[in-house]
UniProtKB/TrEMBL annotation:
Keywords: Metal-binding, Zinc, Zinc-finger. The keyword RNA-binding does not apply. PANTHER family: BONUS, ISOFORM C-RELATED (PTHR25462), MEIOTIC P26, ISOFORM F (PTHR25462:SF296). One of its GO terms (molecular function) is zinc ion binding. This is B box-type domain-containing protein. SMART domains: BBOX (SM00336). Pfam families: zf-B_box.
Amino acid sequence: HQYLGNWKERIILSVQSAAQQFAYQRKNVRQRNFVDQLPVNFLIIGLLEKEKVTRPEKICMSCERLDITSNATFICMDCSDILCDICLKYHKSNKATSNHDTKPISTLTDDVNIPKAFKNICALHSKKLRLFCNDHDIPCCTLCASLCHRKCDNVVTIEEKAKRFCADAGFEKLKVDIVHVSNDFDTLLSYYTECLQSNVKH
């Protein structure tokens, strides 16, 4: 839901009339809370992040979350974000992210290998995510596995989970669907931009 969350305000405004049909309305769930209630699927998030990083135009992800478009020149290996010069400055000055490993995008010339460079560090224990709990559908570090998932029946390595996921028949369709969704969002954003510009002129 992280990817959708960036767009939820815009989507909510665009589907007000159609929203009456959805089940979440009948269950008295507020529209603004709907996206937040979607389960987190880390594999989907990973695919979306890869799609953003490998797209031809390198757009700063921090600026994009604020509906600002600026060219990205750096990549943060800890956050899996690509950043513009200004956002890099704040990234380095922020106490929580000052020690993050950042590199110029120009040093990572092979787009296919960019996502592989991300460290995938556990937010709780600052250890590398090496395992995947199928019972909870989340990646975890070895400490997470021993403390929080020791009673889980189906904990596998990240590599094994990735192989199974990529071997699934729906994987290629999912990648195509993600591209379509991304294109739809771009179209929607262009439409709203044109509408706003038109309203300003009048």
